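Section 4.2 – Deliverable D4.2 (structural model, holo form)

The reporting period included a commitment to supply a predicted holo structure for the target in complex with zinc ion. Inputs used:
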Amino acid sequence: MDLASLLDRLTALRQQALPAVEKADDPDELDAVEAAYLGRNGELRKLLANIGQLSGEDRPKVDAAANPIREELEAAIAARRARLDSIALDVRLAREKVDVTLPGRALPRGALHPIAETSREIARIFGQFGFVTYDAPEVETDELNFQLLNIPADHPARDLWDSLYVAGTDRRWVLRTHTSPGQMRVMQAHKPPIRSLTPGRCYRYEAVDASHGFEFFQVEGLMVDEGTTMAHLRGLLDEFAHAMFGAGTRTRFRPGYYPFTEPSVAFDISCTICGGVGCPACKRTGWLTILGAGMVHPVVLRNGGIDPETYQGFALGMGIDRITMLRHGIPDIRAFLEDDMRFLERFA
Ligand SMILES: [Zn+2]
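Output (structure tokens):
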């Protein structure tokens, strides 16, 4: 290759390379163009490799022609790179622009779980009659959960298959099977007059179905005072039923049995679905049982440190799950603990 054709090809290279630089639309493409023309295996070096075929006096002429072209290309690439960076910045700024005139995004708002809401409503209604809410432990001693409540050793609730005992404690510790140990704790800690509520979780070894859970919620009510009678219990429960389920709700006592109350009753309300006519929900009786209650057994009062000759009291135990299901028409108790947002959002 002679000097003239080498210089011609240098000029041609410049004319090819400059438009290629301008056409590069992103940094990667520009890098590729730079490598193709100015890189170690690029066009310019390949061309200059022919310089060895030239005479000694021609070689500087090639350098004199090639150096400005290299510099011009380097400058063009740097300028193009700066331009691409500024375009990228413009695009990013446009995308990230905050439009202060847009309405704010609504924050998702939590709500009380329906069990917690019902529990508070129960506490609110009983609170109007002077009942104070206490916490009690979910892990109880066998003594408080059973013995002091006059529950004999052969009572079905004490069966290994009904109760969840804490492993390694020789059945001395149990997950409370009801909230009734709460009333014993209140009696042991307070002197009459007592008006207390102890709500919370209870546990039983249950086969789970639409109306039974192995984990469920109860609230225990206790009133102890001089001259407390079944009439006080009946009046209180009527007021509760009317406040919770409506003024037209009818109520009735039926005989019941609990080891820790004597006499014991089941408390029914007229069916919230059919109004008492009879439907599948009330097994066509027109009545729904919502709680068990009775006069506190003298033995239980004594176990609580209270003299049954001076004081009488009533106790009641109510399933918060059941009350919540009746209030909201929820057919399946399992919905409460499944954490399904579609269910929970209905109460938001
Ligand atoms: Zn009914």
